[in-house]
Amino acid sequence: DAKTTQPPSMDCAEGRAANLPCNHSTISGNEYVYWYRQIHSQGPQYIIHGLKNNETNEMASLIITEDRKSSTLILPHATLRDTAVYYCIVSYGPMNSGGYQKVTFGTGTKLQVIP
Amino acid sequence: ETGVTQSPTHLIKTRGQQVTLRCSSQSGHNTVSWYQQALGQGPQFIFQYYREEENGRGNFPPRFSGLQFPNYSSELNVNALELDDSALYLCASSPGTGGSTDTQYFGPGTRLTVL
User: Fold this and answer.
1) pLDDT-derived band of residue A100, with 50, 70 and 90 as boundaries?
2) Which of A93, B2, B7, B22 is surrounded by the fewest CB atoms within 10 Å?
3) Which chain B positions have a beta carbon within 8 Å of A92's beta carbon?
4) Cβ(B81)–Cβ(B15) under 8 Å?
5) Would the pLDDT of A92 be above 70?
6) At CB < 8 Å, which residues of chain B contact A?
7) What are the pLDDT digits (tens) for B81-112?
8) Distance between CA atoms of A16 and A5, rounded to whole angstroms?
């Protein structure tokens, strides 16, 4: 499984964009990049995922570099409720029904949104 | 809203005892994974079940075992509890359509304390 590297903590002013980087230099061709966040010991919450194209949904945008060795999660207008630990994960699973999908979490980035 | 529920919310056991934790998957999801999250760490993969069979396991000893039922609810059993088993236990369900595009949806977790 590819490993990820994230900064342990970041601060962001409320209303500003939060840009959370992730390195995954050993990612393989069929591995996806996932982002989850965990608020105060609740269960992790899915945010977004992508393979090689940039992705956007109602929560965030995901920018993946052309060589796929790094990515950035963007929260366009951070609010206090976005304060959480953000996990960048690469996930592998064979492309057959019931394929084994092992998800390996690192220690994540603790994002503190400041009023 | 994930739809994954876990019980109990909190549990206190003593060393050497056995514990059973329960998870109810999101409707329509036939794959469930269990994770252990120690304080300050990211979730660690324990095992995954697909259609009632274990199809993947992390680095956990055999005293960690599981079951998945036909209605896709599941159990995590831990025998001979040790102090280091104190953690937040998370289950996550996914549609099980196969491949690394499956998104896992997490429950709120069970906080286990071993004294």
Assistant:
1) low
2) B7
3) 100
4) yes
5) no
6) 2, 4, 30-31, 33, 35, 40-45, 48, 50-51, 55-56, 58, 88, 90, 92, 94, 96-109, 111
7) 999 999 999 999 988 655 545 688 899 999 99
8) 24
